[in-house]
Design brief:
It holds the Pfam family HH_MFP_RND. The protein is an alpha+beta fold and about 350 residues long. It has helices at about 1-30, 80-130, 135-185, 230, 275, 290-295, and strands at about 35-50, 55-60, 70, 75-80, 185-190, 195-200, 205, 210-225, 240-245, 250-265, 280-285, 305-310. The protein is built from 6 helices and 12 strands. It starts with a helix and ends in a 31-residue tail after the last strand.
Length: about 350
């Protein structure tokens, strides 16, 4: 009797387990998509941006840590500028010296102008006196020569002024170049994003183009999926899409921002071998910027999920409605204005 009872219990438990597994499997299955929709597995990604040095130098400070959220134009690092500031002082002294030479050239011009006027006056008097034979012809010729010399001296003084003014421009340009290098030593974030790698530390000497930080640009958050050729031909740039993340109960509205013009073998992140063996088209589904900004503290790259795209209807067809499981949108989202953001 006991053996029979044990067998019955085992059978009941076995049936319950089978039913539980079947029910759970049915519960987790996503309903099949209508013909006007296509989906693909992917993960949340963002464009990576490097913060690099423009000139060689020693790192003084780094103000951002890995994981920090930084805003566009926020200062994230500082390169030492002691040597450049010394060069700037020398360049500013050269500017002052060149400007004093311009002032001297202006004074020389005024002097030669006065000498020219005097020479012209003496020549005018000599012209009358030589007519009356009160002075010799040689004296008159001397006065003519003095006027010519005065005019030549004035032209030379004016040329000297132009040369000195160009020298001022040159040393000012040198000063501006050094100041620009000093400004470039203050490294600012080119985008609003999150720091994912800190690649240098204070005291390190970096060459021109040396990387200090690597960030993800939160102005461009997207998911890449791979779609067979048949539905890919019906995906338009700007087409409405929705993203369902594994860790989020809500659906994120999105839009198609890129469709590859060429097919390719899908990469390893596509989960099934049968899909990886096929030639597929890469499609980028972008989350609108306004929505990223509203939830910027929660944005994480690498989160896996599924992107769903609404295909362009065939002639005579209507736009396919979204299924029920994609209707619960992320709070504050504006599905009707996805393509405008």
């Amino acid at each position: 009797m006991n053996n029979i009872l044990k067998k019955v219990i085992y059978i009941v438990v076995f049936i319950v387990l089978i039913f539980s597994f079947w029910w759970g499997w049915q519960y987790l299955q996503v309903p099949p998509l209508a013909d006007g929709l296509v989906s693909g597995n992917g993960r949340i990604e963002a464009v990576e941006v490097d913060v690099s040095t423009k000139i060689a130098g020693r790192v003084d400070t780094i103000l951002a840590q890995e994981g920090d959220l930084v805003k566009e134009q926020q200062v994230v690092a500082q390169i030492n500028t002691d040597q450049l500031r010394a060069q700037l002082l020398g360049a500013e002294a050269n500017v002052a010296s060149a400007e004093s030479q311009v002032a001297s050239a202006l004074a020389t011009i005024e002097q030669t102008k006065a000498e020219e006027v005097l020479a012209e006056q003496e020549l005018s008097r000599a012209r009358e006196l030589v007519k009356e034979n009160h002075i010799s012809k040689e004296t008159y010729d001397t006065r003519v020569s003095q006027v010519a010399v005065a005019k030549a001296a004035l032209q030379a003084a004016k040329a000297g002024l132009v040369y000195r003014e160009r020298m001022v421009d040159a040393v000012r340009a040198s000063t501006k170049e050094i100041q620009t290098q000093i400004d470039d030593c203050v490294l600012k974030s080119p985008v609003t994003g999150r720091v994912i790698y800190r690649l240098a530390e204070p005291g390190e000497v970096l060459g021109s183009g040396g990387k200090v930080l690597t960030m993800i640009n939160l102005a461009d958050v997207y998911m890449e999926i791979f779609v067979p050729s048949a539905p890919a031909n019906r995906i338009a740039i700007g087409a409405e899409a929705r993203i369902k993340l594994d860790v989020l109960d809500y659906t994120i509205p999105a839009s198609v921002s890129f469709v590859s013009p060429e097919s390719q073998f899908t990469p390893k992140q596509v989960e099934t071998l049968s899909e990886r063996e096929k030639l597929m088209f890469r499609v980028k589904v972008r989350i609108p910027q306004y929505l990223v900004q509203k939830h910027i503290e929660d944005v994480k790259t690498g989160v896996r999920g599924v992107a769903y795209i609404r295909l362009t209807p065939l002639p005579g067809e209507q736009l396919t409605p979204w299924p029920d499981f994609l209707q619960q949108l992320l709070p504050d989202s504006e599905p009707n204005s996805v393509n405008q953001h």
